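wait is this the right file?? whatever heres the structure
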């Protein structure tokens, strides 16, 4: 079986549109190692930039400070994480 990236459109509660794209399982394992502490707790300061860089493909090049507020940033990053992790929102 060859990996085929999946895409999903996401519209935030504020009405902004995003496209998520899955990453290779090996890359996801690396990301998970980088975004959690030694106890496996996810770190927002690492999770959010990783989702913006690797999973959210449109609009591309988003940074945390491109968002007007925390609520949408957290919502979109969480939705991207759940998409990549294969869980429903």
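ok assuming it is, sequence goes like this
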């Amino acid at each position: 079986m060859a990996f085929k990236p999946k895409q999903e459109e996401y519209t935030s509660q504020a009405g902004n549109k995003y496209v998520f794209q899955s990453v290779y399982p090996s890359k996801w394992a690396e990301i998970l190692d980088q975004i959690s502490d030694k106890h496996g707790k996810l770190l927002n300061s690492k999770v959010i930039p990783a989702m913006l860089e690797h999973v959210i493909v449109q609009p591309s090049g988003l940074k945390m400070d491109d968002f007007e507020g925390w609520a949408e940033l957290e919502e979109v990053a969480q939705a991207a994480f759940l998409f990549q992790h294969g869980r429903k929102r």
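Strands lie at 7-11, 17-21, 56-58. so i think its the right one actually
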